[in-house]
Specification:
- The longest helix is centred in the first third of the chain and has 14 residues.
- The relative contact order is 0.15.
- This protein folds into two domains: about 55 residues, no CATH class; about 90 residues, Immunoglobulin-like.
- It starts with a helix and ends with a strand.
- Helix 1 runs antiparallel to helix 2.
- By secondary structure, it is an alpha+beta fold.
- It contains two helices and ten strands.
- Strand 1 and strand 2 form a beta hairpin.
- Helices cover about 15% and strands about 50% of the residues.
């Protein structure tokens, strides 16, 4: 896992020399047929954030940058959203892989800390809701 993160950091560092890059994601059905394609332009500033915080993940929702770190976590992780649109409903939900809702909480500031030290070592699912849009993450607790 560490080697993959290192390779990703080096690749992103080389990409950061450009003012922006394009990220393309594809969705496939069970038969392997492509069902969707998502193209996103990633600004240089976000690429720099990924390189500097190799244990963080970045997403952009409605022009709001969402940085989730550290992942994997020992028990406390952070959700950093800039700029946070406080005029809409913002909250997150943390689920066990079984689908059980463990935590739900409003996001009221740009930085939200989540403490999962009392939960077992496992993979969890995190949904960050900003207005009517959702960003989904896998949280790995060591």
């Amino acid at each position: 896992m560490t080697k993959i993160i290192g390779i990703l950091a080096v690749m992103l560092w080389s990409i950061a020399a450009y003012s922006q890059t394009t990220k393309v994601e594809f969705g496939y059905d069970n038969d392997g047929n492509m069902t969707s394609r998502k193209v996103a332009v990633i600004p240089r500033s976000i690429l720099r954030t990924i390189v500097q915080h190799h244990d963080s993940i970045v997403d952009v929702i409605s022009e709001q940058k969402v940085v989730f770190y550290p992942n994997p976590t020992k028990g406390v992780f952070r959700i950093h959203i800039t700029p946070l649109d406080g005029k809409v409903s913002n909250h997150f939900e943390l689920y066990a892989l079984s689908g059980t809702l463990l935590i739900t909480r409003d996001i009221v500031g740009e930085l939200t800390e989540v403490n999962i030290t009392d939960y077992t070592t496992a993979t969890y699912l995190l949904n960050v809701h900003l207005g009517g849009k959702v960003s989904r993450w896998k949280v790995i607790k060591e």
